[in-house]
Specification:
Mean pLDDT: 95
Structural class: alpha+beta
CATH architecture of the largest domain: Roll
CATH class of the largest domain: Alpha Beta
Distance between the termini: 14 Å
Helix content: 10-25%
Shape: globular
Largest sheet: 8 strands, mixed, barrel
Low-confidence stretches: none
């Protein structure tokens, strides 16, 4: 059996071990759906991706994204990490404009490459986002989740763009970091409204602090959420277009679960770019046999 390259990455990390882990199988051509799912279940990471030759016109490569239980069309940190792995493995090169094009379940997405080596930063243009519901659509379930919370400027909303999340702003960073959510209630909200769950944010001195609870896919709290932060940015740009965050900001996420993620948001008109740095922690090979 040919050698199959594998990397384990730390995506959106302010320091090693501070970001969101990702497994990437570099040479996944010929792997069946069942084989990918079984391997993703075994890694037990939030997501594992599999790199394949592109099928769509204009794409440099294709990434399939699996949680331990199912395939998903798009997620932020697997997209950034897959591009990092593909560049490091020599599968792709940025074009003259500094862009690579990744095919995934959400279509062909541009990823901007800035810098080289350990300091390199990658930015994905998030899928277009739209508000699909306000607090009334969450009903009593949303009210139960946010009971007693001091709210921020923007009202809660359900936002869709590649993924679907409930978003709520807290009054300040201390309120956000000290919050002890009812995880069962968040899961009930996710199931009742067909969403991933709830992402909450508060304004801070550097930008915003974020906590994400994707109970809809069985995760208690996510240390670094690229797709969710893209939706938050789109919501801020739409609802607070003249505010201090409307052109971009820094995100701090994950401290409450022992991580320290740093995500960079850039907003250019209706285009939202989500990015940051990725560290390669493990670089080796996979020996994975079919049953």
């Amino acid at each position: 059996m040919p050698s199959i390259r594998y990397k384990q990455l730390d995506v959106f990390a302010a320091r090693h071990g501070g970001g969101n882990p990702l497994g990437v199988v570099i040479d996944a051509e010929g792997w069946s759906d069942a084989r990918m799912q079984r391997f993703a279940h075994w890694t037990n990471l939030v997501e594992t991706t599999f790199l394949l030759p592109a099928r769509a016109e204009g794409a440099d490569y294709r990434a399939r994204i699996f949680t331990p239980t199912k395939e998903i069309p798009f997620a932020g940190h697997p997209t950034i990490g897959s591009a990092h792995a593909a560049l490091d493995a020599g599968l792709i090169r940025a074009d003259a404009a500094g862009i690579v094009w990744q095919e995934c379940g959400a279509g062909v997405l541009p990823i901007r490459v800035e810098g080289e080596g350990p300091g390199r930063e990658l930015f994905v243009q998030s899928p277009k986002a739209r508000v699909v519901g306000d607090a009334s659509h969450g009903g009593e379930t949303l009210s139960a989740v946010l009971y007693g919370v001091k709210r921020g400027v923007l009202p809660p909303a359900c936002v869709e763009g590649g993924r679907r999340w409930w978003i709520a702003e807290f009054a300040d960073e201390a309120e956000l970091r000290g919050w002890r959510p009812d995880h069962a209630a968040i899961r009930a909200l996710a199931m009742a409204t067909d969403t991933l769950g709830l992402c909450v944010f508060a304004r801070s001195a550097d930008g915003i602090a974020v906590r994400a609870f994707p109970a809809g896919v069985g995760i208690v709290e996510d240390p670094a959420s690229g797709a969710a932060n893209g939706l938050i940015a789109a919501y801020i740009a739409q609802c607070d277009a003249n505010g201090p965050l409307a052109r971009g900001y820094l995100v701090s996420q994950g401290r409450e679960v022992g991580h320290d993620a740093r995500i960079i948001i850039r907003i250019d008109g209706d285009a939202v770019w989500v990015g940051g740095r990725t560290n390669t922690i493990i670089d080796g090979h996979v020996d994975w046999q079919d049953l």
